[in-house]
Amino acid sequence: MTTASLTWRDGQDTTTGSVAATVARDETAWTSAGATFTTVDDGLGGQARFAGGAVELDGQSTDFGVLAYQDDDVSHLIVGGPYDDRIALTVKVLRELLAASILPSPDVVLEVIGLPRPPSDVALDPPQEPAPARRRRSASRGAVKRYEPRMNKTELIEAIAKDSGLTRADSSRALDSMLTTVAKTLKKGDDVAITGFGKFSVVKRGARTGRNPQTGEPVKIKASKNPKFTAGATLKNAVAARRK
């Protein structure tokens, strides 16, 4: 689907930016609305599906992207622009997607990064006061539940900037670099040990035979590698002290 203010780009796109919102729409839903996806490196050692588009905002064309993963029923909106303007810009992009009926309703917008309460509660207007809860997918795919506030990536970046004296942009780059380095190191099969904090490692499970819980028939399970984090003594003591 293309409107006077929204266009989709075919093939791999060069849109740059950060994850700005989480939306309860899978790749199929975006594709039915006209998006064209291509496979890209997700920057963490895996692959994702990406579609690029542009919307007309204030007389200028603004790029955005959609990042989706196979068999996942949520996707992520990628928006660029200056860090301090990103929330407002994300809200504007979402409004255009709603106006074009690409998104059926504000209820499918699960989170706008940095927005302190669910977007559906504020009609996609950035509020000034914090909210007691956000929405997040549970471990069960497709489920959405309320939960108590936690620190997201944007808030972590702000905390790093405040503690270190770095700018938020530098803090964001440092955090992204750390996450990417850890992922690449684990992908090679090596551990990442941070004395006192903990160790990131890879747990290997060999191929094995399981059973289908419904039929009881044997099922072959492929070998797998999964990341694991083991907390260090300093981190454990800090958490224990926090709970006292």
Features:
5 helices, alpha+beta, single chain, three-stranded antiparallel β-sheet, seven-stranded antiparallel β-sheet, 3 domains, globular, HU Protein, Chain A, about 240 residues
Q: Mean of residue pLDDT? A: 77
Helix amount? 25-40%
- Give the strand tally: 14
Strand residue content: 25-35%
Structural class: alpha+beta
| Helix count from the secondary structure assignment | 5
Summarize the structure in words.
Strands 1, 2, 3, 4, 5, 6 and 7 form a 7-stranded antiparallel beta sheet that branches. The chain has a 3-stranded antiparallel beta sheet with strand order 10-11-14. A two-stranded antiparallel ribbon has the order 8-9. Helix 3 packs across helix 4. The chain folds into 3 domains: 142 residues, no CATH class; 38 residues; 55 residues, HU Protein, Chain A, CATH 4.10.520.10. The chain is α+β, with helices and mostly antiparallel strands.
Summarize the topology.
Elements: E1 6-9, E2 18-23, H1 27-32, E3 38-41, E4 47-57, E5 60-68, E6 75-79, H2 86-99, E7 109-112, E8 134-137, E9 144-147, H3 153-164, H4 168-187, E10 192-194, E11 198-205, E12 208-211, E13 218-221, E14 224-231, H5 233-243
Antiparallel strand pairs: 1-4, 2-6, 2-7, 3-4, 4-5, 5-6, 8-9, 10-11, 11-14, 12-13
Helix pairs in contact: 3-4
Condensed summary:
With 244 residues, the protein is of the alpha+beta class.
